[in-house]
Amino acid sequence: MITTLAVENYRSLRKLIVPLSRLNVVTGANGTGKSSLYRALRLLADSARGGAVSALAREGGLPSALWAGPAKAEATSLRLGFAGDEFGYAVDFGHPIPTSGAGAGPSLFNLDPEIKRECTWAGPVLRPAALLCDRAGPAVRTRTADGGWHRTQGIRPYESMLSELADPQLAPDLLRLRELIRSWRFYDHVRTDAGAPARAARIGTRTPVLAPDGADLAAALQTIREIGDPAALDAAVDDAFPGSRVEIAAQGGRFELQLRQRGLNRPLGAAELSDGTLRYLLWTAALLTPRPPALLVLNEPETSLHPDLLRPLADLILTATKDTQVVLVTHARPLAEAIAKGAVRHRLDVNSIELVKESGRTTVAGREGLLDEPLWYWPKR
Q: Which ranges in the chain belong to alpha helices (H)?
């Protein structure tokens, strides 16, 4: 489980170090940095898949992603990191060294950020003795079983050692960390409009993990019914829509979602469901997954939901915390309050993180100073 998240110089997150627990609820007014915190987590996950540099490039490169407050001229690096009881990881992105292309002119990739420094370590705090893998520029050294170091050359500046070093003999801890991060799951504004993928009948196969766009919703719900927790599925649907039940119609290998409701002679197809109903069923499939991730991050799941559905959604989120760590980013204070009330029944502590913005800088409300932050050290260049 992640116990600390650290971000420096990413948009309004000038320096943000926050503790994380099993269930984390991030709130705040519009423009306080909630989306930036969500995207910072996604960038960390992208590092394990080799996509962080391209994700930053799509944002316009470092000039667009770097801290944009009064001290913008001082921000030359973007740093992201996390730590837990078992592992910690930090990455430092910086401006590239201009290079030439195949012709006489400059390279067209000179806006791509470079990874200047990258480290993994054992335990919650970076210390020299705890280092497992240490990357500076193209050179990487990995801790060997006898406590020595194995040195590797040739890591390109736009590639992460998490995605490039996969030798189970030389870097077993790095491999374990990479697979842990790759298990993280993100859901952000899944479509429910008339043309949404979840509304169409599709070829169905066993689907323990709902796709990010929700296209395989019918197969995911049927998978829960067959190899997951069908009682929890039925209870979640009945809780939100009393007397209703999800059914999956299959014809020629194509699955179609149907919702049978009390008082209707036929079930409603996915194309007939309201946006809010479809969205709730999408969250049901995501949160009752038979293959829970190490970390599940939800960004504004309350969008288009009727207020009456916020309490059932809160219960689904609380149920998910039995098997996974959850970070919820929400605009809806009623959802946060419903989670707080439900957590009392579940005997679960909620880590409430309310973001505020002061002079263009995102901070955590109620934090008095550095002593309120978890202990954190960045690797030096």
A: 34-47, 52-58, 62-65, 161-164, 172-182, 217-227, 230-240, 275-287, 310-320, 333-346
